[in-house]
Design goal:
This protein is an alpha/beta fold. About 40% of the residues lie in helices and about 15% in strands. The mean pLDDT is about 95. The protein binds magnesium ion. The site of magnesium ion has 4 residues, from loops. The site of magnesium ion (MG) has 4 residues, from loops.
């Protein structure tokens, strides 16, 4: 089938989630249409600027392109990456490209009547174990979660050791000894803080510390690894493409990689990043892995069996962009077998 149209739109968000997480990350919707009448939808990043990259540059490169196989999508990816490289390579151009890539996977899968996880290679597991990101640990326990990523505490922007220890104790107490718990300071700690937190939280048996410092501080994270062990360093939501992750690999900065499928280059580049990780024995736990794009990827590849979810996002009650998104049942989340990513765009949002 030939691509006849492609359009990126920044959704009309009206209500911000508690954490302002959606608005801050500038997600965009990409719609691609083929001469067969098939349509595919993708989710990318870069906000209004990402839409311009797609609508004013990538669109003209894509019109008329044949998409009949996963290989064809890979060729499109390579072409768009190279032709946007002078201004792209990282940041919003690759976030935009991610949306295009996911739309093409959705298009191809829908045209074949298959779920995307079948196109990737088929399920290796029926469902993924979910973890809840957030502080409402008693609620997550009651929902059936056995894993949680709680927020560390801050006072006026400075790390709060007492508050963070209290949060760790609350998570461990609510979820029990067997639960997997971790924390994410969103680049809010430094080397000294991280070292002290590791000592302070040692009794709570945390799996990982996430996003400790900025993605450009690779050597600092590499040096911290032995200092905070057995706690692992996770990160990579702000890193993109296999080239970016090659630098992470060479520096030895991260124990666990967390590419975001809607930012790192989509499923196509996500698979290349995963190859690099697994051939170096590095576990991969995609950022926001419980959203459809990450979920199809997790259940059909060698990713670790752990999918990030944000239960508060399901409580908002408005601004539902994707209809039919899977929710957690008894601590697990499974993608549907509907064609494509199995979700429908709420047209009222665009
Ligand atoms: Mg994070």
């Amino acid at each position: 089938m030939k691509i006849t149209d492609i359009k990126a739109v920044y959704p009309k968000w009206t209500k911000l989630p508690e954490s302002k997480w959606q608005s801050r990350f500038w997600q965009i919707v990409v719609r691609v249409e083929a001469d067969t009448g098939d349509v595919g939808y993708g989710y990318g990043g870069g906000g209004e600027a990402g839409c311009l990259v797609i609508n004013r540059h990538m669109r003209e490169l894509l019109l008329g392109t044949e998409i009949n196989s996963v290989n064809a999508i890979q060729h499109v990816w390579d072409r768009l990456y190279h032709l946007s490289l002078p201004y792209g390579r990282k940041g919003l151009a690759v976030m935009a490209l991610s949306g295009v890539d996911l739309a093409l996977w959705d298009l191809l899968a829908r045209a074949q009547g298959l779920p995307v996880h079948r196109l990737i290679g088929g399920r290796s597991k029926d469902a993924a174990r979910a973890y809840a990101t957030g502080a409402n640990v008693e609620k997550y326990r009651d929902m059936g979660f056995s894993a949680n990523k709680f927020p560390p505490a801050f006072i006026n922007g400075s790390p709060d050791y007492v508050g963070t220890e209290a949060n760790a104790r609350r998570a461990r107490t609510a979820l029990g000894d067997k639960a997997t718990i971790m924390t994410d300071c969103y680049m809010g700690w430094d080397v000294q803080t991280t070292t002290r937190m590791a000592q302070l939280l040692s009794e709570f048996n945390l799996y990982w510390f996430e996003d400790l410092v900025t993605p450009d501080h690779l050597l600092e994270q590499a040096a911290l690894k032995p200092v905070i062990a057995p706690i692992k360093i996770a990160g990579g939501e702000h890193e993109v493409t296999r080239f970016g992750f090659k630098s992470v690999l060479d520096s030895g900065a991260l124990d666990i990689w967390q590419p975001d499928l809607t930012w790192c280059g989509g499923i196509t580049e996500g698979l290349r990043i995963l190859d690099l990780a697994l051939s170096n024995n590095i576990p991969v736990v995609p950022h926001r892995g419980g959203e459809p794009w990450g979920l199809h990827f997790i259940v059909s590849t060698g990713c670790e069996d752990l999918a990030e979810t944000m239960p508060e996002r399901w409580d908002i009650g408005s601004d539902v962009l994707w209809v039919n998104e899977p929710h957690v049942i008894d601590g697990y989340i499974r993608p549907t077998d509907e064609p494509g990513f199995g979700v429908r765009l709420n047209e009222a949002m665009i």
